[in-house]
Amino acid sequence: MKKNITAWLIDGPELKNVPKEYKAIWAKSVEEYKLKGRAGEIVLVLDGISPSILVGIGGDNNECDKMRAMKEAAQLLYETASKHKFERIEIGGAPKTACGLLEEALFDAEYKFKVGNKENNKTKIEFKIINSNASIKKRAKEISSVKSFARTLVDMPPSHKSPNKFAAVIRSEIKKRKLDRKIKMTIWDKNKLEKEKCNGILAVGKGSANPPMILRLDYVPRGAKGKIVLVGKGLIFDSGGLNLKTYEGMKTMKCDMAGAATVIGAGILAAYFGVKNSVTVFAGLAENMPGNAAFKPGDVIETRAGKTVEVLNTDAEGRLVLADLLNLAEAEKPNAIIDAATLTGACVVALGEEYAGLFSKDAKLSESIIRAAEQSGEAIWRMPMGRDFKEKLKGDISDLKNIGNRYGGASTAAEFLDEFIDRTPWAHLDIAGPAFREGKGKGRPNGATGFGIGMLLRFIEEWQ
User: Fold this and answer.
1) Judgement on whether residues 61 and 159 belong to the same structural domain of the protein
2) Could you give the CA distance from residue 84 to residue 285 in angstroms, rounded to a whole number?
3) Where are the alpha helices (DSSP H) in 38-90?
4) How far apart are CA 125 and CA 344, in angstroms?
5) What's the pLDDT at 194?
6) Residues that are catalytic
7) Does one domain contain both 277 and 398?
8) Nearest to 357, CA basis, from 420, 432, 412, 416
9) According to the model, what pLDDT value does residue 19 have?
């Protein structure tokens, strides 16, 4: 017989949405444990009718934080159930509009990465959300499955994912999910990059024994309503190049391809769910290493767009890769371009580890992304752009420099990217903070998070 338990999500100490038969019993527990019903609170109640878990989801007024509280509650529920060996949990108190995200987060909680483990050996727990249904659960499971794949790509050691290996894994995953007839995959190898004058990504990859490449995915539904291009930074490993990082700065740089994993994940989900917009994904895959042929501070690169860039710091390499990709994206004449990249430490300094920076000069596009982020429980914050930042990038012997001064680094990086966009509505997501976590926290597992995939999927589904 399965070891069952009831869980209830509470939004305040009043227990307004709790069934009468539980209210009196749980009121005592709320008082005893001084529960406020705030996000991050959880208590196991062992007295009364049957064992139960109370989880706080309140304390925040904006929609995004409410959804984030749901995701945190899911992780806390999973951790508590695993610790006490519960096998089945019935969950009440979730608003109907949040059931999909809660289901998704419960599946996300099962994720575990370990080299050599072909099967996930985390505890399997059966969750039943009272206000949910089978179709909501099915969608949530697929989204979480693709997020787990993307998280695995990010968590995978650099020894296991050269650009070639990375591309092979993507091709295999598309075939495994039976999407090879829906998604066309194209690879631009070093020779093709040279012919196409993609000198930004070529320069970044020069110091590595593993040559760079651009991976392209195309999903084109019949009667497509619009076209969206997603661009991802795929630095498989970033040592900083000749401007070598410190140990502290380098130790997690296997995650510098999280932007590529994010846009690839969103592209796969768009094809799986048959969205009405066509989607093209460009992922620039390279390793920034200090080998004999590495690019050097002082080099001047002519990008695919024809603009010249003086390299003042080889550790500001992501923007050089994205410059070529954004030029390719513009050539597709889409309705919108969004890039995702773990681009700057400056963005993490400004916003912390939970928020991504949103940079765009297009109000409609920004509003649509913010709305999709709210629905996904993914925190983003719109950041400033403008002439003040662009002025810092003017070159002395070239059109541009790849860095400005030490101030406003995230906005300066975004303005650099803006130089390679002409007329298309474009947004840049700097996901350096939330894409990867060091150290496990309460309700927040360590490692890759899959941040941005849900947001981009919802954006693709709704953009007109």
Assistant:
1) no
2) 43
3) 63-83
4) 38
5) 98
6) 245, 319
7) yes
8) 432
9) 81
